[in-house]
Each structure stands twice: as C-alpha cells, then as structure tokens.
Amino acid sequence: MAHFDLVIIGGGPAGLTAGLYAARANMNAILFEAKGLGGEILNTDLIEDWPGEESITGRALSDKMAAHAQKFGLKVEIKAVDKIRTDGDKKIIRMTDGTEHSAYAVIVTVGGEPIKLGVPGEQEFHGRGVSYCAVCDGAFFKGVDLAVIGGGDSAFQEGLFLTRFAKKLYVVHRRGEFKAQAILQDRLLAMDKVETITPAVVKEIGGNGDVNWMDVERGGRVERIPVEGVFIFIGFKPLGRELFEDHIEHDGNGYLVTDQFMRTNIPGVYAAGDARAQLAKQITTAVGDATTAVLHAERYIEDLKHAEKAFPRAEPRVVAEEAERVRTLRFMPGQVVIREGDDADRFFIVLHGQFAVTRRTGAGETELKTIGPGEHFGEIGLLKGIKRVATVRAKTDGELLVMGRKSFRRIVESSSTARAEIEAEADARLREVGV
Ligand code: NAP
C-alpha cells in the first residue's frame, strides 16, 4: 500500500487545480482519474465564461490545465477509485483493481454523471441515437433532424453545438420557460432551424435499429416526432457520496455538503467542483473551491503531523478529528503567550521560532529554558487543574499550533498510555520548575 499525504480524486478543472497547487507546494500527492484528464469540460464544445479566454474549446482548456499541473510535477494515474474508508488518522482508498492507497487527506472532485429521462427506449438506444454528449456524438448526425431535451445551460450550450450538424433541432422542455442563461437562449432560439416544443415531456424513444422517432406529450396529446438523434441534458447526478463507506453528509440531491474551507463531515476529506453542494456549477467556481480545499488540506496535514508528534501514543482517529480544530497563532519577539498565574485553557505546539520559558523569582524573572520547533507546552495547567506555573514569551518571530482544552482532553484520554506519558512529562516539568 502506497502512502500519500494527499489524494485527489477526479481530473476535471477542480482536481487539476488542486493538483497544480499540491505540486507547486511539493506535497506528496497523487491524482486519480478514472477516464481522461479534463472531466466534464471535455463534453463541452465552446467555453466562453473562463476569464482570459474569450472562446476556447473544452478539449483545449482541459489540455492546458492538465499540462500546466503536470509541468509542475503533479503525479497522475488513470485508475478508478472504488471505495474510501477511514482507518485511524488515514483514509484508505481502494481502487477498482483491488489495490489500496492511504492518505491523510482526500479531495473529492469526481463531479457526476448525466441524469436519465427514464423513458422506454432511452437505454435501448443509448449509443444508437440517444446521447448525453453533443460534442462526443454530434458529428455522427450531419443533415438530420435532432432533439435536445432540457431547458438549462447544458441543453442550450449543447443545442448550439448541434445546430452545426442538424437539419432541424427541436428543443423539448417540460416547462414553458427556460432556465438557461439569456445569452444562450437568444442565440439558439433565434435560429430558423430551431423549434421549441414546450411544455412537453418525452414519453418514449424508438426506431428501427437506430432512433427514428420520439413520442412527446404536449397539452394531453402525444405526438410522434421523427428524429434521428435525441440528446438529453436534464441535469446531473453527483457521484462523490457513493465513494464512501462511512456516512458522508450530502444534500437531498446527493451533493456533498462542505463548510467554507470545503471540508466535509469526515476529517481530512474535502469536496470541490460539481460534486459539492453549491450555487453554481461553473469552471470558475470549481477551481476556486479546489484552491481553498487544497490550501486547507495542506494546513490540516501539517497540523495533524505535529499533533501526532506531540501525542505519539494517542488514538490516531481522535488526533485526526481534533487536528481539524486546532488554530495557528503568530507571535512577535517579546510577545507573551501564557503568563504565570493565569488560568490554563490551551495547549501549544511550537511550529516555528524560539520561545523563552521564565518564572518569577524574588529578584525578577529567571529564564528556565528556550523551546523551539516540535516542542510543546501548556499541559501542566490543563492536566493538574492549576494556574500557569511559568510565563512563555516569543524570543523570535514564531508560530504556534494552539489546541483548546476540549481537544487536548479528548486526545489525552483516547488512550491510557498517552495519558500516562503526558502526565509523567508534566510531573517532570513541575519538578524542573520547582513546584
Ligand atoms: P440544470 O440547470 O439542472 O437544468 C436541467 C434542465 O432539465 C432543467 O431545465 C429542468 O427543467 C430539466 N429537467 C430536469 N429533470 C427533468 C426530467 N426528468 N424531465 C425533463 N426535464 C427535466 O442542468 P444543466 O443544464 O445540466 O446544468 C447543470 C449546471 O451546470 C448548472 O448550474 C449550469 O448553470 C451549469 N452549466 C453552465 C454552463 C455555462 O455555459 N456556463 C454550461 C453548462 C452547464 P426545469 O427547468 O423545469 O427544472
């Protein structure tokens, strides 16, 4: 089993963005993609809402994104993930070929798959006139009558692409109004070869070997419309949730629920892009969310490693859960972190810089020692229920990982050896300071 700090699942814009940042940060990371890099945008002909590119094909943009991330060293494997489970502080990623990998953090950017109409003939004629991707299949339908089903951006965007090939294009939608962006509606509906059939529902798709017709019900009457291709764009079913053995929070439609840092309810698991519950499924939002996710994941992995070093005998699952709750604080030289005599409510791990530990004496203050990266302090007050026995002050610019009383207690109490070890350490320190 190979271990990575970070595993990114899905190679669309969100996954490639997370991968780009991970590679540039030199993280021990890998991206798994089941099919080909690019994701959903490979199914889009023209993209005109990606800033900086007035108009670019989905293929060209995905190629650029993939090349960019890989140029900075992103490791990619074209392999499908089957299931993810939590084991202590790690996520175990089982692939469909049976191999397993582990990671401290996972970013899920798997998007989803097209929703099916669920009418007779749809499944039977899939690949023989029924399609969910105009860019992939449109060119097979030159000079014939086609239909797009749906009233959203996808139906209109893909419909526009199909007008290159179609003799006539029907737009079938279940309501009288479309929800596609105005600019897409204006462009498509202005074309002579485009005819709308609304409000109407497809009842059946049929033909003789290949699709020749669809039955559409409008105003209580069923009409048979001759078409050779039916392109269905009625939305999208997110796939992320199905990857998890443990419960992962999702909304009523199956989209993964995250906080503002793209964290799901499973510590160390993030979601970005179309797999995530959000307002808009855009490339711009997907890459933004992925950036937030990977920056937070990087922080989380570092925090987790520091916490595990401070509590080597604690239960790893508990440390991983509490690592999500720690904060980092910066200090300038001379700034006091804790003061002798104050109430104790937090525990600290030094990330960077030097900190002086001092105690009041008759003559003033005596420096007992200097502590640096990897060392910790603050446990005496929390364990013994007494006031701070020393003052800790930054000697240089410094950064501390700060853990609240509740997190500290959960970690310490997660195993008896962890508790015994930290208590022995606290007793030794008390002797050192002469209390
Ligand atoms: P969508 O916005 O959810 O639209 C789905 C359409 O299909 C709706 O018009 C809906 O009707 C209809 N529909 C849903 N279930 C149906 C059923 N069972 N039978 C018949 N019709 C049904 O999905 P989308 O168009 O795939 O877009 C998904 C997301 O990607 C959206 O956020 C969209 O903005 C984004 N997107 C953006 C672009 C772009 O150019 N920026 C391009 C493509 C997609 P109702 O209207 O009655 O609900």
Report on this structure.
With 435 residues, the chain is α/β, with parallel strands linked by helices. It folds into three domains: 2-112 and 236-310, FAD/NAD(P)-binding domain (3-Layer(bba) Sandwich); 130-232, FAD/NAD(P)-binding domain (3-Layer(bba) Sandwich), CATH 3.50.50.60; 316-433, Jelly Rolls (Sandwich), CATH 2.60.120. Helix content is 27%, strand content 32%. The strands form seven sheets. Strands 1, 2, 5, 6, 7, 8 and 19 form a seven-stranded mixed beta sheet that branches. A five-stranded parallel beta sheet has the order 10-17-11-12-13, with helices on one face. The chain has a four-stranded antiparallel beta sheet with strand order 20-27-22-25. Strand 23 (355-361) and strand 24 form a beta hairpin. The protein is elongated and about 100 Å long. It binds NADP nicotinamide-adenine-dinucleotide phosphate (NAP). The site of NADP nicotinamide-adenine-dinucleotide phosphate (NAP) has 20 residues, from helix 4.
Topology:
Layout: E1 2-9, H1 13-24, E2 29-33, E3 46-47, E4 56-57, H2 58-71, E5 76-78, E6 81-87, E7 90-95, E8 100-108, E9 112-114, E10 130-131, H3 134-137, E11 145-149, H4 153-162, E12 168-172, H5 182-189, E13 194-197, E14 200-208, E15 210-218, E16 221-226, E17 229-232, E18 236-238, E19 269-271, H6 283-310, H7 316-323, E20 327-331, E21 336-338, E22 346-352, E23 355-361, E24 364-371, E25 376-377, H8 379-384, E26 391-394, E27 398-404, H9 405-412, H10 416-433
Parallel strand pairs: 1-2, 1-8, 2-5, 8-19, 10-17, 11-12, 11-17, 12-13
Antiparallel strand pairs: 3-4, 6-7, 7-8, 9-18, 14-15, 15-16, 20-27, 21-26, 22-25, 22-27, 23-24, 23-26
